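Sample pair:
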Amino acid sequence: MSYKTLKTKTVFRTNDRNKQGTLTEINIPKLTENVMPNAQRIYFIINNDSSEEIRGKHYHLDSSEILLCAKGQAFVEIHSKDKCEVVTIDRNNAIFIPEKCWHAVKMEKETILLAIAEKTEDKTATIDELLDNCCCKLCGKLFSFKKEIEAAKNK
């Protein structure tokens, strides 16, 4: 199975908005039903730093995950045996990352990512072990798709 982007328009629902903030509900079963119906773990990745941050730089040996932005924007560099590219995620879309699909995430400042994982614990591996499965063989050069990232930022 290859990675794919997921539309989140019907997943986020704002229930309450007032001066103190916004309560937003995420329909996890609706988001995961076609790609990962038995999701078991949810975690947040928050970039509190004043600069961009790169996270990940690994792949999961036996677990899939979905990444979506609760706030901000992130660029996911993803490498698989089918294709390699940078995908932009924000409140309008998410990305499903199947097992053995190498990824790194470049988060803009103040970005909040929500990750939904298939298993409560999984094994990860670094890039060196995946080079044979990657179609571009550029995995060792993090964010080698700089032109695509810049183009996405300027949209």
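Helices lie at 28-32, 146-153.
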